[in-house]
């Protein structure tokens, strides 16, 4: 078991943990934009969101819930991966080539996690898996 790697029997639970945590973290971006919770300086309450940010907030809120539940995962993850690629190149890349400098680390990680989920699906412990049974 301890040859530097986790046992393969942990593949399903860790797949689910990555999917659920990614969905919940993504959901938090949507609740911050749309519900101002948790509160941040980026999206103060009482300030209307620009239309593109409103669409992003809706996708983050709904998409985060769907990813966390593992419902319609492949399609949702594909859409969200594209959204994160666009967000990175529109909001982060213009200020620097490097994500660590331009604040785009999360966008890049979300993009590739969602791309992976779009290819492998929700995995076990998901609504999608229950629907196939």
Task: Walk me through what this model shows.
68% of the residues lie in helices and 0% in strands. The protein starts with 10 loop residues before the first helix and ends with a helix. The protein has helices at residues 11-35, 51-69, 73-92, 99-102, 105-120, 127-132.
User: Counting H and I runs of at least 4 residues, what is the number of helices?
Assistant: 6
Largest sheet: none
What structural category characterises the helix and strand content? Answer: mainly alpha
Q: How would you describe the shape? A: globular
**Helix coverage percent:** 55-70%
By DSSP, the count of extended strands is 0
Distance from first to last alpha carbon: 31 Å
What is the residue-averaged pLDDT? 94
Detail the poorly predicted runs: none
Radius of gyration over C-alpha positions, nearest whole angstrom: 16 Å
Portion of residues in beta strands equals under 5%
Order of helices and strands: HHHHHH
């Amino acid at each position: 078991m301890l040859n530097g790697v986790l046992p393969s029997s942990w593949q399903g639970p860790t797949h689910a943990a990555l999917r659920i945590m990614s969905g919940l973290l993504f959901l938090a971006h949507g609740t911050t934009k749309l519900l101002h919770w948790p509160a941040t300086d980026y999206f103060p309450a009482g300030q209307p969101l620009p239309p593109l940010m409103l669409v992003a907030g809706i996708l983050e809120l709904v998409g985060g819930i769907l990813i966390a539940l593992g419902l319609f995962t492949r399609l949702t993850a594909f859409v969200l991966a594209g959204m994160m690629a666009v967000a990175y190149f529109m909001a982060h890349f213009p200020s620097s080539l490097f994500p660590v400098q331009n604040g785009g680390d999360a966008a890049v990680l979300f993009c590739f996690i969602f791309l992976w989920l779009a290819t492998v699906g929700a995995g076990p412990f998901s609504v999608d898996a229950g629907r196939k049974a």
